[in-house]
Design a protein that fits this description.
This protein is of the alpha+beta class. The protein has a domain of 86 residues: Alpha-Beta Plaits (2-Layer Sandwich). The chain is built from two helices and six strands. Strand 2 and strand 3 form a beta hairpin. It starts with 5 loop residues before the first strand and ends in a 5-residue tail after the last strand. The mean pLDDT is 92.
């Protein structure tokens, strides 16, 4: 991030709930309701012992090809840019954001737009 002049911070909405449970593991998430019914989670619930590590590993792997300008930390993605190749920092930053959004669209990860910050000069 050294030498960069524009930054954006993206927050993923309900990150854990965007990860489907392996079918064989669904029964392991069962909880009993007060009426005696069993409820099983089809997506990874918060509170599972390996949920944070699983989610972090997934996000890291998905954005690894973009690591030169997009770092991840759990449900946060930090994009940083500077002027290069005759393009302004804003032009480069918009290209970087577009690539991040392409990965998000392809993998059905959604940003919490209310918690995102776009293109300030520092974070």
């Amino acid at each position: 991030m050294s030498g960069c002049t524009l930054y954006s911070a993206l927050d993923l909405v309900d990150g854990y709930y965007q990860i489907l449970m392996r079918e064989s593991d669904i029964p392991l998430t069962a909880v009993s309701t007060p009426s005696g019914m069993l409820w099983e989670s089809l997506v990874m619930p918060q509170g599972l012992s390996n949920a944070p590590a699983t989610f972090n590993r997934l996000v890291t792997q998905l954005f690894r090809p973009l690591r030169t300008f997009a770092q991840t930390y759990f449900d946060d993605i930090f994009v940083h840019s500077r002027a290069e190749g005759g393009q302004t920092a804003m032009e480069v930053h918009l290209k970087h954001l577009r690539r991040v959004f392409e990965v998000m669209r392809a993998t059905k990860l959604y940003p919490n737009i209310n918690k995102c910050v776009f293109a300030p000069e520092e974070i």
